């Protein structure tokens, strides 16, 4: 999300690796720091949390979901490896003891929820793959986790959404906003106010204590971290953070696929070689993945199992006989609606990249 905005990428140690555009650092830090607890204090509170059991536990992830190939993205992304994207120069420190979520706007009964009240609601688990709209074809801004949280739709039903409302404008402690389509949040998918990620309370960098997760939508329109407010409203009355900066108001995730191995640009040995990667079409599901080498015939990849339609899916081609020379490998996925990715490249802005991921390898 570079164009026209300030977006920061963090590497796995949490260091700021790319700051774009001019930001008044002191201003942002001052804003983020105001009224928030210190790091130590929040870490201590987080360590004390005993996660409630889900009301209906999800089945374990099928063993066949992970092909366990070296260099292939694991089916579940460990929290420490999960991509991080946000505008926060200073990580918000939100104390769960004082956290509140306010739901208001076009509702019959405004609601305020504390963290304890949220934990006492029936909690559900969901396997959901998060994707950033600024993830270019072949890019790294995607990760999959098992989330635990309360149903967002149930809470919104208790508030009573008034007719004519079509947008949930959510706000985080640091003032960032996101606009989620009401119909998507309410259509029965596992839209969550999430409190945990892969069996532990949300890491601070991923929204502790509470964040939204809505399968099928890019993060900028769905995945508000450090959430404190949901205003039920209308797209013709409100504009969220990235929409003001030229990104689309609504952001359904595009069907995509990525080659993880062999590594693009690498030199490999001649002989039988596995080509493998991940494909995703959240809330639709992946039905097929095909691979071709040097624009030859498309070969069907073998698909790993998936627990549902909201995650990415690993795939592998086992029988490529790599011959010495330079080779181009391309991938395309077909989702469960029957749509097959086209080679037409679209850049990330305004509504997500598309096109075939293509890599070059040297075989010796
Ligand atoms: N408060 C806040 N929440 C946010 C953002 C942000 O900048 N601030 N970025 C969003 C974007 S663009 C994405 S892709 C996801 C990334 O979630 P992650 O950092 O946990 O992977 O968070 C979303 N939630
Ligand atoms: Mo994003």
Automatic annotation (TrEMBL):
SUPFAM superfamilies the UniProt entry points to: E set domains (SSF81296), Oxidoreductase molybdopterin-binding domain (SSF56524)
Family matches, as Pfam families: Oxidored_molyb
Coiled-coil positions: none
Any one GO biological process: sulfur compound metabolic process
Species whose genome carries this gene: Sphaerisporangium album
Lineage of source species: Bacteria, Bacillati, Actinomycetota, Actinomycetes, Streptosporangiales
InterPro entries: Ig_E-set, OxRdtase_Mopterin-bd_dom, OxRdtase_Mopterin-bd_sf
Gene3D superfamilies recorded: 2.60.40.650, Oxidoreductase, molybdopterin-binding domain (3.90.420.10)
Protein name listed in UniProt: Oxidoreductase molybdopterin-binding domain-containing protein
Signal peptide: none
GO molecular function: heme binding; molybdopterin cofactor binding; sulfite oxidase activity
Ranges where the Oxidoreductase molybdopterin-binding domain occurs: 91-239
